[in-house]
Write a structure and sequence with these properties.
Helices cover 78% and strands 0% of the residues. By secondary structure, it is an all-alpha fold. Helix 3 (41-57) runs antiparallel to helix 4, helix 3 packs parallel to helix 5 (85-98) and helix 9 runs antiparallel to helix 10 (182-202). The longest helix is centred in the C-terminal third of the chain and has 21 residues, at 182-202.
């Protein structure tokens, strides 16, 4: 059964994400430390996923991967994709990319690229496109990067998922800056910033 504590833990996760992506990591840590987490699997999943998000933001990718894999394992043992399944995949990919393990990135992408039909599957496809872009960049195939970002952005706009769209726009903009294309990056980064601010005001 769902307890009040579990509801609070669930609400904690999106706040941790938002704070992290606004650069307020210390506030994210304070928020997580202030939430009572039991040994119940769902609450442990949320804690592991929150720790993975914070660790990735701090560049501690090994710790992030350990926590993301724990969250993935807990999600599977609960017998459902779960409301945070998309975030478990994202943090695992972020960590694996940060560690430079491109073969494992490819493995994760391939594992989730054949899902079709449902809304979660469509979101997974957008996530695969977003991280396929970074994989192409890591393999020095920058001519192939932009189409992946653009397909991810189009899908996320269609799904109406502003937070994840903002993350993708941020990635796309950062890649453009790295390609000495700051003028093209400006509108993407501004849209991402405005979205994060707007979401903060609603929480």
């Amino acid at each position: 059964s769902i307890t009040i504590r579990t509801v609070r833990a669930r609400l904690c996760m999106p706040l941790v994400q938002l704070l992290v992506h606004r650069g307020e990591i210390s506030k994210a840590k304070e928020l997580l430390d202030g939430i009572e987490i039991s040994e119940e699997q769902q609450e442990q999943l949320i804690r592991a996923l929150s720790l993975a998000t914070i660790a990735n933001a701090e560049g501690h990718h090994r710790a992030a991967l350990e926590n993301a894999e724990k969250a993935l394992s807990l999600g599977e043992s609960l017998g459902f994709g779960g409301m945070f399944a998309k975030d478990e995949l994202i943090e695992a990919l972020e960590a694996t990319l940060g560690l430079g393990d491109l073969d494992k990135v490819e493995e994760l992408l391939n594992r989730h690229s054949d899902q079709v039909g449902s809304r979660p599957a469509i979101f997974s496809a957008a996530t695969v496109e977003r991280f396929r872009a970074w994989l192409e960049h890591a393999r020095r195939r920058d001519d192939s990067v932009a189409p992946h970002f653009k397909r991810a952005e189009a899908t996320l706009r269609e799904l109406g998922m502003p937070f994840y769209l903002a993350l993708t726009l941020l990635d796309h903009g950062e890649w453009l800056v790295g390609q000495s294309r700051a003028n093209e990056a400006g509108p993407l980064l501004e849209e991402a910033r405005a979205t994060f601010e707007s979401l903060s005001e609603t929480m």
